[in-house]
Design a protein that fits this description.
- The complex is a heterodimer of chains A (255) and B (251).
- Chain A has 255 residues and is mainly α.
- Chain A folds into two domains: 36 residues; 217 residues, MetI-like fold (Orthogonal Bundle), CATH 1.10.3720.10.
- Chain A has eleven helices and no strands.
- Chain B is elongated, with a radius of gyration of 23 Å.
- The chains are: A mainly alpha (255), B mainly alpha (251).
């Protein structure tokens, strides 16, 4: 099966390799200015140095920690609030206007005010990431909780399940596909906000390094760090997709 | 007219708490102006024309990027879905670019396109491209096989089939992708303006933050919230009008 997948993407990989080779040739031939776009082979060598010297570990870990912490906090708030709003109409009435008020704010615009209050440290960055994560998770959870089969809820009541038991053992598992879909959207946004917060705060992390390298005109290094960040994005998506498949294996079997 | 619910009271209560905490000195900080001062700043900057001018510039960049990225997304999506060879050849390249967080492409783009409109429009277009591409491909897959077969029976060529049968049929999916993209586009426009150059609302936010002018900064956030809300509302209305047949089918 892995072999089949590999065969399916082989032509695509070949095209990618060709494009990189073409870029290399174009730069070497002087068609693209070397100062702006170093040849891929040079970027590759820089990347290798970063990896071999272990220099990449600290910034990568800083960004990873930020994304994970913000993603976890935001997801938790989104799931709890979404479940409450989907389950108790009173909670929905109470929070709906507030949610509708904050939701359309482009979350990137909240970073400057947050910097005034929380400084430029970890707290500010985590809060920025968590804020952008909350809403997709919340809305999807709400939708999932409301979509739970009435017959199953009646059955739970017939069996004398209490509210907490019903929520934990019936509603949340049934809403899980929706919750996870929301979390997948949020994960991408979390990385965007993490990089932005790092750039604006100006200390540490992959986002800061990329901007800093450009401003110091260390162009090779800028591209090398960008590759590391892209791989991080790819890895996070891949890991989440795998976890999602595992968590929802029952759904695929029934479908 | 909507009834005033507990939620409306909560929002009003929070605003009142904000005002009181600043006026009565519960939170004593130059970063915490009363909400009335924020509204005053909003009105002041609107009258001087500073904010409307900057918002106008941001909106122009956002819509240019939305148009460019949306068109590219639809065209590539149609190609990938209708001509599988293209997807096999270029799918990997697209998937390799997709996971790069947008703010990170700004520094390299600055090198090539500078700090102004071309760079920012490109960043927005890049953001918009991916959701529209994904949705267009999904939409094409959902087109009824009979519709395409009928077109073929009537001797309609592949180009015209793509334009007059497939595209209208997958329009609801394209529009759903565009709606997602619209929200992202506003976020990214602000991001690009914050990181590079001296244009637009994003830059205004950062300048006000550095200048320590909190009322102006919050006023800008409020304005952006209203803008985000209005854009989404307007889009949903246009969407309903454009694909009323889709909703009429009860989907």
């Amino acid at each position: 099966m892995l072999l089949d997948r590999l065969r399916a993407i082989l032509p695509g990989l070949a095209v990618l390799a060709l494009l990189i080779a073409g870029l290399e040739a174009a730069v070497q031939a002087g068609m693209i200015r070397r100062v702006l776009m170093p040849p891929p082979s040079v970027i590759g060598a820089t990347l290798f140095d970063l990896l071999a010297s272990g220099e990449f570990v600290e910034p990568l870990m800083a960004t990873l920690k930020l994304v994970f912490a913000g993603f976890a906090i935001g997801s938790l708030i989104g799931i709890v609030l979404g479940t409450a709003m989907g389950w108790w109409p009173a909670a929905f009435r109470l929070f709906e206007p507030l949610v509708e008020l904050v939701r359309p704010v482009p979350k990137s615009a909240l970073v400057p005010p947050l910097m005034l209050f929380l400084g430029i440290g970890f707290t500010m960055k985590v809060t920025s990431v968590a804020l952008v994560v909350i809403f997709p998770v919340l809305l999807n959870t709400l939708q999932g909780v409301r979509g739970v089969d009435r017959v199953m809820l009646d059955a739970a009541r017939t069996h004398g399940w209490g509210t907490a038991h019903t929520l934990w053992h019936l509603v949340l598992p049934a809403a899980l596909p929706f919750v996870l879909a929301g979390m997948r959207i949020s994960l991408g946004l979390a990385l965007v906000l993490a990089v932005l917060a790092e750039m604006l705060a100006g200390e540490g992390g992959l986002g800061f390094l990329i901007l800093d390298m450009q401003r110091s005109f260390l162009i090779r290094q800028m591209y090398a760090w960008l590759v590391i960040l892209a791989v991080l994005g790819l890895a996070l998506n891949g890991i989440f997709a795998a976890l999602e498949r595992r968590a929802l294996h029952w759904q695929n079997r029934n479908a | 007219m909507r009834r005033i619910t507990s939620g409306t009271w909560l929002v009003l209560g929070l605003f009142a708490l904000w005002e009181a905490s600043a006026r009565l000195g519960w939170v004593d900080s130059p970063n915490w102006p009363p909400v009335t001062e924020v509204v005053a700043a909003l009105i002041r900057d609107s009258i001087t024309g500073e904010l409307p001018l900057r918002v106008g510039g941001s909106l122009w960049r956002m819509f240019s990027g939305l148009l460019a990225g949306g068109l590219a997304g639809v065209v590539v999506g149609l190609a990938f879905a209708l001509v599988p060879v293209t997807a096999r050849l270029f799918g990997v390249v697209v998937e390799a670019l997709r996971p790069i967080p947008v703010p990170a492409v700004i520094p390299p783009l600055v090198l090539f396109l500078g700090l102004d409109d071309p760079m920012k429009i490109t960043v927005v277009a890049l953001t918009v491209f991916f959701p529209v591409l994904t949705n267009t491909m999904q939409g094409v897959r959902a087109v009824e096989v009979e519709a395409i077969a009928m077109g073929r029976t009537f001797g309609i060529g592949p180009w015209r089939r793509a334009a007059f049968i497939v595209l209208p049929a997958c329009l609801p999916y394209v529009l759903a992708g565009l709606r997602v993209a619209l929200g992202l586009a506003l976020v990214v426009t602000v991001v690009a303006e914050m990181i590079a150059g001296e244009q637009g609302v994003g830059n205004y936010l950062v300048v006000m933050q550095f200048a320590g002018r909190a009322p102006e900064m919050y006023a800008t956030v409020l304005l952006l919230a209203a803008l985000g809300y209005a854009l989404n509302r307007a889009f949903v209305t246009l969407e309903k009008r454009a694909i009323h047949w889709w909703f009429a089918m009860g989907r």
